[in-house]
Write a structure and sequence with these properties.
Helix content is 14%, strand content 39%. By secondary structure, the chain is mainly β.
Length: 74
C-alpha cells in the first residue's frame, strides 16, 4: 500500500497496524485518523513520506510509524 491508501483507510475508522519498532520489537497498535475520534485541538505533525502519523486509540496520543516497517494492516 502507498501512504495515501493508509491515510484513506485510517480516515474511515480504527485499523490494527502490526509493525516493527526502531528497536526491533514488534508492536500492534489500534490507530485512526477518523475526525470523530481524533481530538480537534491537536493535530498530526508533518511527517516525511516514509512515515505515517496516526492517532493511537489505546494510548490516546499521536504516533509515527515507518511505512516500510508495517507487517500487517487490517
Amino acid at each position: 500500500m502507498m501512504k495515501a491508501d493508509y491515510i484513506k483507510e485510517l480516515q474511515q475508522g480504527v485499523r490494527t497496524i502490526v509493525f516493527t519498532k526502531v528497536d526491533g520489537t514488534e508492536r500492534t497498535m489500534k490507530a485512526t485518523l477518523q475526525e470523530s475520534v481524533v481530538p480537534a485541538s491537536t493535530g498530526a505533525s508533518t511527517a516525511p513520506d516514509s512515515n505515517l502519523v496516526v492517532w493511537d486509540t489505546e494510548k490516546n496520543g499521536w504516533r509515527s510509524v515507518r511505512i516500510n516497517s508495517i507487517k500487517s494492516f487490517e
